Amino acid sequence: MKKLPPQTSSAPDPSETLAVLGPVARSSVVDAVADRLRNEILAGRLAAGSRLPSERELSLALGVNRLTLRAALARLEAMGLVTTRHGSGTEVAAWRERAGLEALPMVMGSLDPDEPAWLELLTSMLEVRRILATEAVALAAVRHTDEDIAAMREIAAAQGTRLHDAQAYARGDLAFQRAVVRAARNVGFELILNSFARFPEEQPALVAQLYDKREDSVGFYGALIGLVQAGDPDGARNALRDVFTAMDEEWLGRHGHRPAGGEAARKRETRETREVAERASRTGRAGAAPRDRKSSPSSTSASSSAAGGAKKTPKPKR
Predict the structure, then answer these.
(1) Which has more confidence, 309 or 41?
(2) Which residues contact 274 (CB under 8 A, 6 or more apart)?
(3) CATH code (residue 69)
(4) Quick check: 9 pLDDT over 90?
(5) Percentage of the chain surpassing pLDDT 90?
(6) Is residue 148 within 8 Å of 298, Cβ to Cβ?
(7) Does 24 have pLDDT greater than 70?
(8) Is 54 inside a domain boundary?
(9) Are residues 257 and 152 part of one domain?
(10) Segment 58-104, tens digit of pLDDT
(11) Whole-number Å distance between alpha carbons of 207 and 200
(12) Which residues of 210-249 are buried (b: 16+ CB within 10 A; e: fewer)?
């Protein structure tokens, strides 16, 4: 029976790496052409179902040769953005039906933040993130090992040194999410998380806004770790579902994307954050009944970026 290859943090020997690598072609022009066409497709300026001009016409318009154009089109076809049929040309695909989650940040990058479609995509991203984070913590609560907890604590402690830099804090947050994901032992979750991994580099302005309350959120990592340690998946789901929703709604209001709830909303979020932290602290001390856990090859799952709390939820069984 085949198994997934084990995940290891140890670096391979450089000579072994060189043995499997060969020369790579210069691809900057291919990247530029693929990015240009991708943005036109995702922004809707090249509509789904429309046929692209001939290779000759398109290569002349873009100022590149046909080989470069074909390489760029092949890349777009792999993304699910176009379909190419021999003898009938290249057609723009319906990306919502063919593309994967990685298209979400690509589409956002092709739009202006003032466009309604950008807000719709941002809302979709926040919903995916909080659903993934909530379920990841819940699964990690029953599948984690002591090594997983140690990894989370190490990353959480380092976050306090990154408060001055939104990009560094975001990368640290992604590392924490990956630690939770691996504790959840779900490969699909880790692959989904990979779709967000390039955000700090590709969307620096958005990342700076998403992580604009770093001082308030850094303490929540300890609360998440406490929920994982408590071993109560239903309690974790109940605690995090409402608080992540409240956090996202407050953020949207704070940045003018929705009517803000004012001072009452801010106080509610602060109260809920405090309640979740206190609840996680209590359950972390009480813990769950000791049980044996086998260390398994890492896999996946995801946490979420910052702060939290929960509305009144049943206290977990001690």
Answers:
(1) 41
(2) 309
(3) 1.10.10.10
(4) no
(5) 51
(6) no
(7) no
(8) yes
(9) yes
(10) 999 999 999 999 999 999 998 889 998 877 789 999 988 888 888 88
(11) 6
(12) bbeebeebbbbbbbbbbbbbbbbbebbbbbbbbbbebbbb
The answer to whether the CB of 302 falls within 8 A of the CB of 187 is no
Task: Give the residue from 81, 98, 115 where a domain finishes.
Answer: 98
Phi–psi pair at 21, nearest 5 degrees: -105, 145
Buried b (16+ CB within 10 A) or exposed e, 47-75: ebeeebeebeebbeebebeeebbbbbbeb
Q: Are residues 141 and 250 in the same domain?
A: yes
Give the structural domain span for 130: 103-286
Q: Which residue has the tokens 């076809």?
A: 77
Strand runs (DSSP E) across 196-276, as ranges? none
| Phi and psi torsions of 142, nearest 5° | -110, -5
Q: Looking at 98, 129, 145, which one is the last position of a domain?
A: 98
- Residues 230-254 pLDDT 10s: 999 999 999 999 899 999 999 999 9
Among 245, 244, 236, which residue's Cα sits nearest to residue 184?
236
Average pLDDT estimate for 17-35: 64
Whether residue 316 lies inside any domain: the answer is no
- Stated length of the chain: 318
Show the tokens assigned to 70: 């074909």
Q: What is the pLDDT of residues 122-158, one digit of tens each?
A: 999 999 999 999 999 999 999 999 999 999 999 999 9
CATH of the domain at 243: 1.20.120.530
Same domain, 111 and 84: no
User: What pLDDT shows up at residue 301?
Assistant: 34
> How many domains is the chain partitioned into structurally?
2
What is the rounded CA–CA span in Å between residue 83 and residue 303?
Answer: 35
pTM confidence score: 0.70
